[in-house]
Amino acid sequence: MTGDKMKEPLLSVRDLVVEFPTRHGTLRALDQVSFDIGPGEVLGMVGESGAGKSLTGAAIIGLLEPPGRIAGGEIRLRGARIDNLSYEQMRRIRGRRIGMVFQDPLTSLNPLYTVAQQLIQTIRTHMDVSEADARKRAVALLDRVGIPAAARRIDDYPHHFSGGMRQRVVIALALAAEPELVIADEPTTALDVSVQAQIIDVLKEICAERGASVMLITHDMGVIAETADRVAVLYAGRVAEIGPVRDVIQHARHPYTAGLMGAIPTLEQTSDRLVQIPGAMPRLNSIPTGCAFNPRCAHVFDHCYRERPVLRQAAPQHEVACWLTEEGGA
Amino acid sequence: MLAFILRRILQSLVVMLVVALVSFALFRYVGDPISTMMGQEATIADREALRERLGLNDPFIVQFFDFVSRAVQGDFGISYRLQQPVMELILSRLPATLELALVSGVLAFVFGVGFGVYTALNRRGWLSTTIMSVSLIGVSLPTFLIGVLLIWLFAVELQWLPSFGRGEVVDLGSWWSTGFLTPSGRASLILPAITLGLYQMTLIMRLVRAEMLEVLRTDYIKFARARGLSNRAIHFGHALKNTMVPVITITGLQLGAIIAFAIITETVFQWPGVGALFINSVRFVDVPVMAAYLMLIAVIFVVINLIVDLLYYAVDPRLRVERAGAGH
């Protein structure tokens, strides 16, 4: 990639392939996934369970669970490849340059250490500061993520905090060493609906303040619509569509995206049943040839069975992997 | 916290009373002590006189109360066999057993945790596989066989270590004799300590390994990795500490088991401890010693359990809150 037409992306993923060798052959969980995240940008990543959203995050931060492995493609952070680094080199990037927020705040924090201990340890792993300075930073961070009386509560254990408060602590931990990119893997799924919006706001605000980019993994289109600048739609380990949020939501080009949007209930809607896409996502060992979505697609035609569509530009910055777009024109 | 300790002590007292009942029942149901004590030629009148003198004709409750009140004062009567106060006998043998149990307990804990962590972190290494296979021997071979094998190898064939006894001991204070201070005392400890601790070591090792593998799969370890913490901090700080919570319980109970089951090892190595004393007492139906031994083991288990409960508090902050909340 000689990407000099735009500003250099912070993170660039090209043709990423993740495979799981099993006894019954190799499963391809991610198949030639490509996308960029610009500096300060929030990229939403949506798709059904098993579409490969979390796997993409794990691959980027280098924490794929064995036997899963990156079998192809490359991941670049500010132009430098990070997918082929040693464990130790990658360790220095984790937390320092790429932070990660996990789904369940109840299990993300070590129950036997105080919040202060966990924060200070993380800060001092990556930054050359004294214990006292690290503590000051930790208190400031907690304060920033909205923990009341942070200076006092910092010495509490995780079980002293509610779910929402714990997720704030998790965010503080992920941001402790001021990473350039934060991967948030379903950060609100395990939370009470009433605090979900607050957590997303906190995450978005702090990242905006610090100029950090965010990769927001979720299956909640509402969250994406409110938070993300661009959105990538994953289906069966492939990118179906990627583009600016407004564009994708209002003018979905891929029938799968259109189906997803149709499944969101609206206030005006009067029908009794929610619209849903017929069928289920194929299992990894039986992905059909051609377009992976062809068994469920209402607009399927012969080309879809023969050849796999690749991402093509359908509108400015808006790419779609669908033969309809290809042949019908944008 | 204080309320909790008091409650536990009260429970312990109930346990001790039940054990006292069992040990007291020994007097009444394990043979007739009079016939053991007096031999064949004694007349019936002599027997009845002794029976009366020892209070054996009193009602059950009176005898039991008498037994408990004297036991509390450390008086378990006179050994039928050795004609010495039982408490004196046991106290003179206790240091040997406690030193042996301490050394094998420490060995079992240190090597058990060490090997457990190693095999959990290097699951597929050849050394781990070897350790795991060898540990099967430790779990499955009976203690006396291990002891005999060790004696054969290190005492008979190689002649590196003594095969029996405590070696030279040094008296510390009025009743504690220690084998730690002389070379022969230390050499004598090695084989019995290994024999006694091997099973416990493999048990702790397998427990630590299983717990550690479990902990390494948790979200907070994943999150710790995602924060770029060093492997050392993750494995020995975050993971090991969480692993230790259940390990502490088992280790504590095993320490009690080590003291109680020292009987076999002490017999194999002719170790002059309370276990050997107990076995000899069983042979001669020396009921006062048997009863006192039973009480002693019960006290040890109860005390260890109490310590384990307190250690829980030290390790797991979640307990501190819940108990405090329940207390108010």
TrEMBL record, chain B:
Name the UniProt key words of this record, in alphabetical order: Cell membrane, Membrane, Transmembrane, Transmembrane helix, Transport
Q: Which Gene3D superfamilies match?
A: MetI-like
The UniProt record lists the keyword Membrane: yes
Span-the-membrane segments of this chain are 12-30, 100-121, 133-155, 175-199, 247-271, 291-315
Topology in the lipid bilayer is annotated as: Multi-pass membrane protein
Asked if Iron is a keyword of the record, the answer is no
Domain ABC transmembrane type-1: residue ranges: 94-312
Localization recorded for this chain is: Cell membrane
Q: Which PANTHER family match?
A: ABC TRANSPORTER PERMEASE PROTEIN, DIPEPTIDE TRANSPORT SYSTEM PERMEASE PROTEIN DPPB-RELATED
UniProt similarity note: Belongs to the binding-protein-dependent transport system permease family.
Q: What protein am I looking at?
A: ABC transporter permease
Source species? Roseinatronobacter domitianus
